[in-house]
Amino acid sequence: MEVPPLALYVHLPWCARKCPYCDFNSHTAGDSAPKTRYIDALLADLDAEAVRAGSRQLISVFLGGGTPSLFSPGEIGTLLDGIAARFSLIDDIEITMEANPGTVECGDPMGYRNAGVNRLSIGAQSFNADSLARLGRIHTVGDIARAVDAAHEAGFSNINLDVMFALPGQCVDDALFDLRAAADLAPVHLSWYQLTLEPNTVFHARPPEGLPDDDLSFEMQTEGQALLATLGYEQYEVSAYARDGRRCRHNLNYWYFGDYLAVGAGAHGKISSDTGIWRYAKVANPLMYMEMLERSGSEIDMAPLGESERVFEFMLNVLRLTDGFDQALFAERTGLPAASLTERLAVASKKQLIEEISGGFWRATGLGQRFLNDLQGEFLP
Q1: 343, exposed or middle or buried, with CB in 10 Å at 0-12, 13-18, 19+?
Q2: CA–CA gap between residue 236 and residue 283 (Å, rounded)
Q3: DSSP codes joined into one string, 171-208
Q4: What tens digit of pLDDT does each residue of 151-160 get?
């Protein structure tokens, strides 16, 4: 088994307000969040992760949340300096930070650029004021353009906008309007994804009225995909579209079953070694996480991935990609024979969910992309 590329995920867990659809490990705190203490805990956590990395280089860093832009440029700079001091980085490393529009949540793009962030991911979600209100967002439509303009002025050439569809009360024209408005701001990347009612969210407990049904949602998806193509955005993953080849390296590493280190409350990591493939997770509660690092350092349980789990997790990720995958990559990333997939690929192919493009190279069909959960389910343990 060859050692795959290595990335780093850093979780910054606080938000100004918890959105009713969000199932991430995020907590409302605002200005009361113990940011300096948390940065110190992250630096201590990074010490342990650096040992895990050894001499391997990082290809990307992703600061996710929560709302990382609630942290000041100085605090982000301290964190990124700490990463650079502990790890070997490739020369053109991608360093992404999530931010939200609005005075409270956008922070200072110029300050973040100077701190070392070179890719900004802005949570627009919609360009309709009513939709933003229903989603519990605290920014306005005008805040989105101001945030993107400020990012461009700060020198960010690599900007992603998050936009959602299948929103309460939304029709196809509304969804297409959001995409055109997003494209008008000239981001090189769009993450366009369907609203889903995740467990342990307000929307799951109390679904909003007016949610589009499956047929209407699929119509939004297909017409939106066609529009994005005409606007110059190439779809390369279920919900990811890029101009000028500016695909997100960090997310591609997930989809291709690469390795990733994890620091921060609730962060999850995956690491490959001579002894196998291992998963681990950090304590989810931010206070408990900080106390643990202050008391005794990073304490985690490493769980090995068995053969059936490797098969499923590889396929769960790689089937999201529109380009498809080579069975040789499966063998390289999982340490299992490429033939381990043969029987299940044949079954999925018979159901017309997947097709072999060339010798050993497979791709989900249009039907498989529409019913991706069914296709992924063919590889369950």
Answers
A1: exposed
A2: 33
A3: -HHHHHHHHHHHHHT--SEEEEEE----TTSHHHHSPP
A4: 999 999 999 9
The sign of the dihedral angle between the CA atoms of 202, 39, 256, 50 is negative
If one looks up domain 6-254 in CATH, what number appears?
Answer: 3.20.20.70
User: How does pLDDT run across 296-332, given as a tens digit for each residue?
Assistant: 877 788 999 999 999 999 999 999 999 999 999 999 9
Q: Is the dihedral of CA 109, 158, 166, 63 positive or negative?
A: negative
Closest CA to 377 of 346, 332, 344: 344
| Domain 307-377 falls under CATH 1.10.10.10 | yes
- Please name the helix (run of DSSP H) or strand (run of DSSP E) that holds residue 373, with its range, or none: helix 372-377
Q: Where are the domains of the chain?
A: 6-254, 307-377
Segment 20-40 mean pLDDT = 87
Summarize pLDDT for 223-237 with one digit per residue, the tens.
Answer: 999 999 999 999 999
| Residues belonging to the chain | 381
100 secondary structure, DSSP code:
-
Q: What 8-state DSSP symbol labels residue 68?
A: G
Tally helices (H) and strands (E) across the chain: 16, 17
Q: What angle in degrees, to the nearest 10, is found between the helix axes of 172-184 and 214-230?
A: 30
Domains 6-254 and 307-377 share a fold: no
Q: How many CA atoms lie within 13 A of 42 on its CB side?
A: 30
> Burial of 111 by CB count in 10 Å (0-12 exposed, 13-18 middle, 19+ buried)?
middle
CA distance 93 to 353: 36
Q: What is the pLDDT of residue 296?
A: 84
Give the pLDDT of residue 18.
87
Instruction: Decide: 118 and 158 in contact? Cβ < 8 Å.
Output: yes
Residue 188 near residue 158, CB atoms below 8 Å: yes
pLDDT above 60 for 104 = no
- Joined together, the tokens standing for residue 288 give 């408990």
| Res. 105: pLDDT tops 70 | no
Q: Residue 107: CB partners within 8 Å, gap ≥ 6?
A: 69, 70, 71, 72, 73, 99
> Using only C-alpha atoms, what is the Rg of the chain?
21
Backbone angles phi, psi at 194, to 5 degrees: -80, 140
